[in-house]
Amino acid sequence: MANIAVYSSKGGVGKTSLSVNLAWAAATLSSRRTLLWDLDAQAAASFILAPKRKGGDEARAVIERDLSPTKLIVPTGIPNLDLLPADASLRTLDLLFAGLDSKKRLLRISEDLEKSYDRIIIDCPPGLGVTAEQIIRGASLILLPLIPSALSTRAADELIHHLGGRKKGAPPVLPVFNLVDRRRLAHKSALEGAPDQHVIPMASAVEQMADRHAPVGVYAPRAPVTKAIAALWTDVERQLTRG
Predict the structure, then answer these.
(1) How many domains does the chain have?
(2) Are the C-beta atoms of 15 and 126 separated by less than 8 Å?
(3) What is the pLDDT of residues 71-80, one digit of tens each?
(4) Directed axis angle between helix 185-193 and helix 150-164, to 10°?
(5) Helix (H/G/I), strand (E/B), else coil: 225
(6) DSSP letters along 47-67, please?
């Protein structure tokens, strides 16, 4: 089993849409038994994949080990894809992790699920706090979505240096240009500076995910954004296999 964390220190970079679409790719294109673990208190991924689920406050109890994650996991209607949903109880996740005596709590919880799943995609909350440290310790690979610009690329380089320099054995970081509009000069310039980096285009199909309650591959299988997601997932699988 491998944990793929979709992480950014800032919001507004399309982290949730990327997480949902990658989970679909893992389950559908690779036939992996996949769990999307929503750790963001906004619960956007949970809303997309399980809109009829009644909200509660159990997500925090999973972190505290007062509730088995299997009690909260729900099917999504997509073969091979389940959801471990988020809720508002994760608002103070940093404080919760700071008060725990385990620096590898996320890793330990995911290890409990390794007999049931091949891939766990984690939609992480933004920030550089204690939660980020848990993510670093628990991830097999970190995907770093960023909006293409000189400043965001610089910030990403600093973050990659921070993550990679933590200690020996830190997970590899795969930066991904997300929500790309090639008509914008800043986007074009950033793409030219990193020609080998994956590019996920901005698309109306992505904006429809919350209304359709599905990944783009379900209702737009031939769209350029779906092809870009598939190419990214192929690279993710390659890196995990190589690792």
Answers:
(1) 1
(2) yes
(3) 999 999 999 9
(4) 40
(5) helix
(6) HHH-TTSPP-S-HHHHHHTSS
